[in-house]
Automatic annotation (TrEMBL):
Name under which the protein is recorded: Twin-arginine translocation protein TatC
Keyword Membrane belongs to the record: yes
Highest classification ranks of the organism: Bacteria, Pseudomonadati, Gemmatimonadota, environmental samples
Coiled-coil region(s): none
Pfam families named among the record's database cross-references: TatC
Length: 84
């Protein structure tokens, strides 16, 4: 559900200038730890495979968010250079 909207949320924050790709990349370790906690809470039982099945897509979505944030940052820099 809502956790899979991560790229959209980060894209909006990046477009507003609240987060940068460098910040997201530097906090990757913390993000993966948070993803592990979220996946553990959202998946039932103590089966690690189900938790991993939730962690992998969330981690890939976080990485996609970094890529999208880089694209937004490049566009913002190009727009600023063209306007200056």
């Amino acid at each position: 559900g809502i956790v899979f909207e991560l790229p959209v949320v980060i894209l909006i924050l990046s477009a507003m200038g609240l987060v940068t790709p460098e910040f997201l990349a530097s906090k990757r370790r913390h993000a993966i730890a948070g993803i592990t906690v979220v996946a553990s809470v959202l998946t039932p039982g103590d089966v690690i495979t189900v938790t991993l099945m939730m962690m992998v897509p969330l981690t890939l979505l976080y990485e996609l968010s970094i890529v999208l944030s880089r694209l937004v940052a490049r566009r913002r820099l190009a727009h600023a250079a063209a306007g200056a």
